[in-house]
Design a protein that fits this description.
The chain has 356 residues and is of the alpha/beta class. It is built from 11 helices and 13 strands. The chain has helices spanning 19-33, 55-68, 103-109, 132-138, 150-158, 202-215, 245-253, 269-276, 307-319, 321-334, 340-355, and strands at 5-11, 37-43, 80-84, 97-100, 117-122, 144-147, 165-166, 189-193, 220-225, 237-241, 257-260, 280-284, 299-302. Strands 3-2-1-4-5-6-7 form a 7-stranded parallel beta sheet, sandwiched between helices.
Amino acid sequence: MKTNRIIFVLPAITKKIVGGYKMVYTYANYLSENGYAVCIFYDCNRGKNSKNIPGFICVLVRKILCILEPTWYKLNETIQKKSIYNINKKYFCNDDIIFATSVYTSIKLKEINNVYKKLYFIQDFENWSLEDRYVKETYSFGFINIVVSKWLKKIVEENSKTDAIYIPNGVDDSKFKIMTPIDERPKLSVAMLYHTNERKNSKMGLKILKTLKEKYPELNADLFGSIPRPEFLPSWINYIEKASEKEVVQIYNRNTFFLCTSSVEGYGLTGLESLFCGCCLISTNCLGVEEYAKNGFNCLLSEPKDEEAMLKNIVIAIENDNLRRQLTKNSKELINNYKLDKSKQLFAELIKEVIR
């Protein structure tokens, strides 16, 4: 049993399914299974307060959520969870190894001096709430920087005095796998993640699906997302709110295509998951997705926000059976480099090295 506590400091607790949280939970589980004392602290001071609800009620609600959540991911019972406010050194001790997991938690943890080591788990370039220069400044705080993609590694190292450690996000191939043979799926079937974040360009994806439906009346579409079903979705589009991991795997397995319309992705985990499940990936060539998506080899890529080019790509794949089969065949070879077990081992080796 290791004496060091491993502490991940996340932003405020959320009931939504968030890819970045999922990877933190995954590594937290793995470390706890291997004998480490693991804690997750939620920075609840970053949560939004309702103007109509007293502050003490908001605090109470977050404490309760901290106990109940995440309901969409099963955390090991040995992992300690805590909702904290005004992050300061009273929550930490000399043997602690703490992870900042966002730009704001890195800023707050910069002032904490009574810990063994500080690490910064960077899964995206978080410039949606801070100017670029302030985000880049966090990379120079002296933490051990860990990045999930090569494009992030380049940015981080340009703004840090030390090399960043590259650990790509992995997919659990014991769960995300081909269960329905590819040739037994309806050819005219498309899956897509729906998200309100403008960087995801889901509206463009819906326009493409509607155009495809006009061209191919037999088309089926499966969407999943963290919000309730949008009222404007046509009835022929199936939608699952807060789809469980099992449901997401089923969605991938009953569709031939997966559509990714994002302008930017820190990594683009859903696209990779779809490849593990045998989908033909039609995506933008946005940063993050290019980590595992090679145009013309295992997918078809177009420029972000180029609706016409993306529509053309999926039509080409629909009407060219040999091309589509070759793309999915090539994916089987490539995804061996992105299995979750490998990423877990790299993460655990990092912790061992930090302790040494």
